[in-house]
Specification:
The complex is a heterodimer of chains A (about 260) and B (about 550). Chain A is of the alpha/beta class and about 260 residues long. Chain A has one domain: 3-Layer(aba) Sandwich (Rossmann fold), CATH 3.40.50. Chain A contains ten helices and ten strands. Chain A is globular and about 55 Å long. Chain A starts with 5 loop residues before the first strand and ends with a helix. Chain B is globular and about 70 Å long. Chain B folds into two domains: about 280 residues, no CATH class; about 240 residues, no CATH class. Chain B is mostly helical. Classes of the chains: A alpha/beta (about 260), B mainly alpha (about 550). At the A-B interface, strand 1, helix 2, strand 6 and helix 3 of A face helix 3, helix 7, helix 10 and helix 13 of B.
Chain lengths: ~260, ~550
């Protein structure tokens, strides 16, 4: 697809430890259009975070090709990074700074003017119910509060593509609803969301395309309706179970309880 | 303060930009990092104040060390070349040591992976921020070391030579930082993740031992006339040793006789830091981010731990011998595993193992005494009591861990006597790290003094354990690996060192007194054993209300 905003060709990635090598991504091919919300799902260790880290320029040692926002991530990583926002899975922040200071810091690295960042940051913090704590150091914040700051830091510079790795971790129900709304409205404005998560109901609700990865291989790609066609499933969770071949949950649960009770 | 430091970099803006650094981003990141440094460990037991005191104490100690060195510089212009070489070597060692032992966390701060790597920041900018961030602290070290020598230099030789010395100190610091970084970057290129972390820890340990050795050796070198005269002439190999670049170009400026050789040394002293800058920015910076990201990756550890099963049976066997209850045995085995894998614990304890050998070696080298003289002496007391140093380090280090939050586990288990847990933990590290070194060292004792000394060795071992249980009982009882590491950096190390020194010296002194009074230690041994038994029992029976809870 020529107008794709993300293109991946034969993407592979291995981790090495001494003489052993573990391949976590196997020849992935993808093409994402602007304005799409991609729900990138898969079991633990499937390679979701690795894909997101490669596309965000955090991991640069990979095989294959990856283009984001029209730039080759290997050849022009800084150009790619000018166009993306990244929200990581762990609330990794400089916790001795205040939200305001952290957002100032991030904004300046993206070349925004100080006064503009301040204005945007205070308004965004207010909408996320963090205005009261805007100047408090984040080492006293709850996990959800930190996650809100991370979400703001991933979008404050108005990126074209937003990569999210479990972004709703620790958020309260109201904040989850707000983030879902933000994502859907941003997509309507032409922003592309690459959303990696375990939380199936959120993925099901917001994604217009779901990509399921298992053991480093894409095993399903399409809308929820397309993927569930012809299958006896009523939710993405059931579909996920079906596609990853792990349908013996109740049997496993029974076995676990048996062991515990022995 | 942050603004002042940032302003110090502004005159070098062009140079940094020449090296490929985005100066605006450089300043923004450095500002954030320095602001965070200022706010570290706030709100926990007044530690910020303690940390400031510790830094102040460090500056004071370095200044005093510098004062000691300046006495050598005053010895006269004849040996100026030798003493300036020692001075620059010392600066180089201290800077490299500082970078390896204390500030490598700045260089390898993996938090930056998710915060900075997805931003449009070039690898060079990021690397330079880190290097310059470290450089600020290392400059404090080298300048505090130099302050008295600079004053002495100004009085003895005049202001201009003092300014040259200052420039050389700065160049030496810069070069040492680049040298260490280049070594790190090369290591990162050829190793990855877990292995690099191991290499860093082991290099820290080796450096600490080298430093201890050098510290012991330096005063002896300063007295060695033959060495001074042999190092007073330029030799070819000196072109390869950085401290000589500075001293060989500085000395002729002061003493006269500037030659072609001096010019080459002068060029090396200026050109090499610049070359280091170039290598770092052009050759190694590109792969820095990539390698840094691998530090965060979960390495597959399947390959590494073969032969675990056999080791486990040894631990089981030792646990059965040294423990009384299931709780104590479980603690023994778990702490044995953690202490043999936890890098921070190794970092804190392993240098002590090396120090013991260095101290013993130095004491025997000292004075050029013959073996016959040694046999006549009571130096076996040294071999018996110096290893206690390890025991005290273990006692002080066992409570700390980066994963201190995992100590919630102790609060949730239904153990009647938490003392069994702490007792098992102490026994595990003692058997694992103290006992083997004690045995190795005292095999030498038996070799030199004969089997007749075995009674003294057993007495020394029991006395050391007895003293250590006493210290454990006098301290607040804390579960193993349950306290935050930063607490250790709160300026209490000096007190601990003093306590260690006086306890070991006291034990050795008492032991000597018994021998001096012709008291057979084997008669006193039963008393020591009874006290040891009672103290260890009391420690093992520590109740819940005596436990300090950090969870």
């Amino acid at each position: 697809m020529s107008n794709a905003i993300i293109t991946i060709n034969n993407l592979s990635k291995s981790y090495r430890n001494g003489k052993t090598e573990k391949k976590v991504l196997h020849n992935i091919n993808l093409s994402v259009l602007p304005g799409q919300i991609i729900g990138y799902i898969g079991p633990n260790g499937a390679g979701k975070s690795t894909t997101v880290k490669i596309l965000s320029g955090i991991i640069s040692d990979f095989e294959g090709e990856a283009m984001v926002a029209g730039y080759d991530i290997r050849k022009e990583p800084l150009k790619v990074k000018e166009h993306i926002g990244y929200i990581p899975e762990n609330a990794s922040l400089y916790e001795t700074l205040s939200p305001m200071e952290f957002l100032q810091f991030v904004g300046q690295l993206h070349g925004l003017e100080v006064s503009r960042i301040e204005d945007k940051a205070i308004r965004l913090l207010e909408l996320f119910d963090l205005k009261q704590s805007a100047h408090d150091r984040m080492n006293t914040f709850s996990k959800g509060m930190k996650q809100k700051v991370l979400i703001i830091s991933g979008i404050i510079h108005n990126p074209d593509v937003i990569f999210m790795d479990e972004p709703l971790d620790g958020l309260d129900a109201n904040a989850v609803i707000i983030v879902k709304e933000i994502l859907m409205q941003l997509a309507k404005e032409g922003k592309t969301i690459f959303y990696s998560s375990h939380i199936m109901d959120v993925v099901e609700k917001i994604s217009d395309r779901i990509i399921l990865i298992n053991q480093g291989v894409v095993i399903a790609d399409g809308s929820y309706e397309e993927l569930s066609q012809g299958k006896d499933t009523t939710s993405l969770e059931q579909l996920f179970t079906f596609l990853t071949g792990k349908s013996d949950h109740s049997q496993r649960a029974g076995e676990i309880i048996d062991i515990v009770e022995q | 303060m942050v603004k002042i430091i940032l302003s110090l970099f502004r005159p070098f803006r062009k140079i940094l930009e020449w090296a490929g650094v985005n100066y605006h981003q450089f300043e923004v990141i450095l500002q954030a990092k320095l602001t965070m440094d200022n706010r570290k460990v706030l709100g926990h037991n007044n530690q910020k104040k303690a940390m400031k005191n510790a830094l102040g104490m460090q500056v004071l100690i370095y200044t005093m060390m510098g004062g000691f060195m300046s006495m050598m510089l005053m010895k006269g212009s004849g040996a100026l070349f030798f003493f300036t070489t020692i001075f620059f070597s010392f600066i180089m060692i201290m800077v490299i040591m500082g970078l390896i032992s204390e500030f490598n966390t700045i260089l390898f701060d993996t938090r930056d992976n998710s915060i900075l790597l997805p931003r449009p920041i070039s690898p060079r900018t990021l690397l330079f921020v880190r290097v310059m961030h470290i450089m600020i602290y290392l400059m404090v070290i080298s300048l505090s070391l130099s302050i008295i020598p600079l004053i002495v230099f100004a009085i003895t030789y005049g202001v201009a030579p003092m300014l040259i010395l200052l420039a050389d100190v700065i160049l030496m610091t810069i070069f040492s930082v680049f040298l260490t970084n280049i070594i790190y970057m090369l290591l990162m290129k050829f190793t990855s993740g877990e292995r690099l972390k191991d290499i860093i820890v082991y290099s820290q340990i080796v450096m600490a031992i080298i430093f201890m050795g050098a510290y012991q050796l330096m005063p002896r070198l300063a007295e060695n006339e033959a060495l001074i005269s042999s190092l007073s002439q330029i030799k070819l190999w000196m072109y390869l040793v950085p401290p000589f670049w500075m001293s060989a170009s500085l000395t002729p400026i002061i003493n006269g006789g500037f030659s072609l050789q001096s010019t080459i040394f002068l060029m090396l002293s200026v050109a090499m830091p610049v070359l280091g800058l170039w290598i770092l920015s052009s050759v190694l910076a590109k792969s820095f981010n990539q390698n840094l990201a691998t530090l965060d990756e979960g390495d597959t550890k399947s390959e590494k731990k073969k032969g675990k099963a056999e080791k486990a049976t040894l631990v089981d066997f030792l646990a059965r011998i040294f423990t009384y209850s299931t709780d104590e045995r479980t603690s023994f085995k778990t702490i044995w595993q953690i202490s043999s894998r936890d890098r921070k614990f190794k970092q804190a304890v392993y240098p002590a193992l090396g120090y013991v050998f260095v101290i013993i070696l130095m004491t025997f080298i000292n004075g050029h005494t013959s073996l016959a003289d040694i046999v006549e002496s009571k130096k076996f007391l040294l071999l018996i009591h110096v290893p206690s140093f390890i025991l005290f380090i273990l006692t002080f280090s066992l409570r700390f861990s980066d994963n201190f939050k995992a100590s919630w586990i102790y609060q949730t288990i239904p153990v009647q006597r938490p003392g069994h847990i702490i007792s098992g933990a102490f026994k595990a590290v003692t058997v694992q790290l103290y006992v083997p070194i004690f045995i190795i060292v005292n095999m030498v004792t038996i070799y030199i003094w004969g089997v007749g000394v075995i009674g003294q060795i057993i007495f020394g071992l029991c006395a050391a354990l007895m003293m250590n249980y006493l210290i454990l009982l006098l301290q607040p009882a804390i579960f193993p690996f349950s306290d935050e590491k930063s607490a250790e950096q709160s300026g209490r190390n000096a007190t601990k060192s003093l306590l260690m020194f006086f306890t070991i010296a006291g034990m050795g002194g008492l032991h000597y007194l018994l021998i001096y009074l012709n008291v057979n230690v084997l008669y006193v041994l039963p008393l020591v054993l009874i006290i040891l038994f009672l103290l260890s029992r009391k420690y093992r029976l520590t109740p819940w209300n005596k436990m300090t809870n950090f969870a």
